[in-house]
Structure prediction request, 213 residues.
Amino acid sequence: MDAIFKALADPTRRDLLDELFREDGQTLHALEARFDMTRYGVMKHLKQLEEAGLVVTRRRGREKLHFLNPVPIRLVHDRWVSKYAQPWAAALSDLKTRLESPMEKIFEIYIKTTPERLWEAITDSGIRSTYQFGNTHTADWSPGGHYEMHNPKANGMVLGEGENIEVDPPRKLVQTMRALWDDDVKAEGTSRVTWEIEPVGDSCHLTVTHSDL
Prediction:
């Protein structure tokens, strides 16, 4: 975690993360225009944030876009926030995210496991319920198959549904998603979630992209 704290210790790097939180997926040119420093200076700060896992990049044609990756910060949070404070912190964090949600979010994390076990954790309803608030899934895991997410504590209420567009075990899963738990989220329509698994040594690099928000 030293790299995370070192990256966050600099106010300019914190400001860069704030800029990406405000508007995710920005180019270097867009970011440097907001800072009173050279292009090289901004590049150095972004490089350190990327090395700490706080920023991830993607190519879109000739452009290189920068995205905030909050997973490392969440891991710091989980280490020191008590189980009693966590529901309040999570509720307020979710409220802020919901009210300020950008058009696309990219999350990355390294997990010490095999691609097969990670794929199972993503697609097995019993395993998935342990990290998705107890909600269960029913799904046809074939291309074009339908899936639903249920809340067993609310008489099996359907919280969301979608289609499995691309199913390539244990490497890639692309799904549409439509939230259904209230009229407001229903009105937001359908988004897309892409799960990508890349083996790295004895671990896996998991990238989750939530787009078309």
